[in-house]
Amino acid sequence: MRRVLLVQPSLQPPGGGNGLAAWVLQALVTKHRVTVLSWQPVEVEPINRFFGTHLHRSDFDTIVVPRAWRLVPDLLPTPAALVKLSLLMRYTRKVSAGFDVIFGACNETDFGRRGIQYINYPSHLRPRPAVDLRWYHQAKAPLAAYYAVVDRLAGFSLDRMRSNVTLVNSDWAGEQVRSFLGGNPRTLYPPVANPGPGLPWSERAPHFLAVGRISPEKEYERVMRILVRVRANAPDLRLTIVGTSDRQTARYFKRLQSLARSLGDWIQFRQNVSRDELRELMGSHRYGLHGMREEHFGMAPAEMARAGVIVWVPRGGGQMEIVGNEPALMYDSEEDAAAKITAVLYDPATQERLRQGLEARAGLFSTDRFVREVREIVSAFPG
Fold this sequence. Notes:
- By secondary structure, this protein is of the alpha/beta class.
- 43% of the residues lie in helices and 15% in strands.
- Helix 1 packs across helix 15 (367-380) and helix 8 packs across helix 13 (334-345).
């Protein structure tokens, strides 16, 4: 049994990175003595309910970054994610003595010594992709100064970070890391909880789901516009958007609701559903559509694919690997998406072929596979 320090700003839902960290914790608590170092306190009930883990508070120890460190960043008008991550890295070096392994689930990290880092998309690969940009990223000079400040705040060393064992969430992300860091990152696909078999295909509703955090980068407007085109040939088609919003995305959610009303009564929203409700929705629908470009992996399309849903994704990012780079399930534009979807809706043979292809890949994203590989990686880490 080894002493493992798991470093992650938060394990609380929603968010694919938080869910991945929760499953890292799940993988390790039965084999090692684990301490979670986080910016936010760990509350296991919401984690279990949302991510499908089965953690108990007695399974692990916790360290929360002291309130004095958190006070100013938490009051800033922006998420200040890099500031918080920088302080978390700095605090890691204060408390890491005595641990055999440090495992960071929050992109490239300088622990002050060699550790294991899981990279969803390199935070130091700048400029950021267009889908990540917000209003506060527009002024280039202040942004460059901000990056310099947070790196100095962290005491960040590229050389120390490059010595880590590097895991990535997709082959696509691995190419981004390799071009920036060099080395040979290992792809470890994120874990997707088993959604169960769902209804037989013939009993599923011939309608669409769009699942994920209700946030601008998810481009739900794009999903709606695509399905407006499809409805020209399939007027009975309906869309259910399933997700969560918060104070920071409330204005965006209101815009989506307004757009949906203007398009008719065929779009509905389901917010803050339980894991069982999400399973029921995915297991009773035939089709899914994802709107975010250059998604680093794409937990929502992976969940839908595992649930037996035929899901379309934009061409770009790690999400292409979820659908096995199948041309019929990747689109370049709204027109392209509508044409490909319409062709599949009226072709049962193609539907069966696509379903079989997605089912064949399902094991790559299973929680069993993820847990097994995390344990192997931690056990093999030099002590």
